[in-house]
Write a structure and sequence with these properties.
This protein has 488 residues and is α+β, with helices and mostly antiparallel strands. It has 3 domains: 25 residues, no CATH class; 281 residues, 3-Layer(aba) Sandwich (Rossmann fold); 155 residues, Galactose-binding domain-like (Jelly Rolls). The chain has 12 helices and 21 strands. Helix 8 runs parallel beside helix 9. It is globular and about 90 Å long. About 4% of the residues have low confidence.
Length: 488
Amino acid sequence: MRPAAVLLFLAVVLAALALLGRAFPQDGLRIGTVTLEFPDAIGQLTAPAEKKVDISAIIAMRVDSAGAPPSGGTADTLAADTAEAVNAIPNAVIEYPGGDPGMLRPALDALNAAATAPRPVRVLHYGDSQLEGDRITSYLRNRFQMRWGGGGTGLLPIIDVGPSFSVDREPTENWQRFSVMERQEPPLGHQRYGALWAFCRFTPAVPDSLIDDSLAQEGRIVLRKVGRAYGRSQRYTRCRVLFGHNRRPVTVALGVDGGIPETREYPAGTGLRIAEFIAAPRTSLDLSFTGADSPEVYGVSLESANGVVVDNIAARGAGGTELRRVDKALLKAMYDALDVKLLILQFGGNAVPHIKSAQDAEDYGAWLGSQIATWRKLCGGVPVILIGPSDMSIKDGVEWTTRPWVEEVNAALRKHALANGAAYFDLFNAMGGRNSMVSWVEADPPLAASDYTHFSPQGASRMAELFCTALFNDLNGLVTNTTTPHVE
């Protein structure tokens, strides 16, 4: 075939494909469970190219990603250098109801007194899979503890959906996890999930009449310190075990670094119980429960005697509205026992793929707003800050672009957070706004994963620093009668 004929043939084929792509339904052609899509070549060629978002200021931020300031630096120089970089990012700010950051004053007063308080000041950080593994929370915890003292990782579940950055867990195989995220109906006929939205058992959940009182069973977990974690998270002096609703007596024992365990015995009972141990291990803790029936174990908290503890509470797939399916009496009892002083919520990303209209976005915002009001009531009116969704991208032809409805969800969450007395951190705009996720993925090293949704470890540190510096700036700006201490 002559070259001219070959070129003509190719031109005809390409033109036919281009016309087919133009005529193909924009949302694809659904056949059963499969959706066929066809790129619109003409549209791609004629559409204006998206301008790449400049995130050089975010890339230039100095972040503490290894648990210690960079070589030659100190905590003070790191904070000063980072604050200067973050302050150059105009959208990295927290918005407050009525524009008044004074709502944070109760939390600031508690933080300023934390170093000499009889127990640690508690900050709870709830969120979705962005928080899994303690990636973002660990950074926030370290910054809080560097400034106000304290140590430990805070609350940990016996088993979780993934490993933790801050501690290694080795539970025996007989533990079973029950989570509010698993199904619509409560698996055991109740909603006593506790502050971690999940609890664990080491014996089967059988009717009371089928419990074999002659058979003592044991559930164990070994908690090990890890070198990759921030140093302050490894400096704890006590272990608190939160459990309840054991239908038979149970013995709780804790061994430190392989030593002789210290034991506590509890009769059968309902309600929340807390076993507290002095525990400052070099390497590990060995926690065990023994009894004919397992209690519901709501969490293990590794804490300092005072200072600050920041708890990581991540629920894969959560949108924040799951609070409605958690028993409020137990939840309030746990919040009271923990003495919560600040709530940080981070939701919105999981709702975006299910939003089909502006009204859907508004409804979701209103729903989460109502849950914020419930949270505040349960925690005695403590300050609440909602961190909104990040930018998220989907493939549009050959380009990645911001998912539909991200901006509408962001706006709705901002509106309803402020309306319900919570502050709002607009993460979407702080990280660069529309199509900024592409720049985060393409950074060197990448600041986000190839799913164009989740942050990489380097990106998680920067996201946390954007928020943390904005928060600390506002705390510094409050007029108080106390001096903010700095703890080395």
